Amino acid sequence: MGKSLSLDLRNRVMSCIDEGHSCREAARRFRISAASAVRIRQRRWKTGSVAPAKRGRPKNSGRLEVFADFLKRTVDHHPDMTMPELAGALLSEHGMPATAAELSRFLRHRLGYTYKKIADRNGEAAQAGARRAIRVAESPPAPDAP
């Protein structure tokens, strides 16, 4: 992903445009694309500033902060609950709709929970190859096709 142009460069491009040069001339002079010069001019016209907009995913708005105690109690009491089940519990108890992804981010970043892979029945790390070999050995032979 590309980076935003520096604020200094944006200001120099705008001062060049303010002096009467076209966006294309300013872009050529500062070696940026003409589209970038046009966008900088449009941004100043719309917002009054040439500063770039914030990038990336918006931070959690905090709407789940109110329910942090409920979520912590629920996860501690039912550690094997899935995120859609937790979303359903939050909706039924408090009438707050939330997506599974939103809950997962909140639990990880705000409450400090981590994702842990599920171990197999013996508590050992799952080894798909060995378990598959056992399943294949225990499965009955397939009847011959006519």
Task: Tell me what you see in this structure.
- The protein has 146 residues and is mainly alpha-helical.
- Among the domains are: 7-47; 65-109.
- The protein has seven helices and no strands.
- α1 packs across α2.
- The termini are far apart.
The helicity comes to: 40-55%
Give the biggest sheet: none
Distance between the termini: 58 Å
Poorly predicted parts:
none
Order of helices and strands: HHHHHHH
Estimate what percentage of residues fall within beta strands: under 5%
- Count helical runs: 7
Mean pLDDT value: 82
How many β-strands, per DSSP? 0
Overall geometric form: elongated
- What is the radius of gyration? 28 Å
Classification by helices and strands: mainly alpha
**Oligomer state of the chains in this structure:** single chain
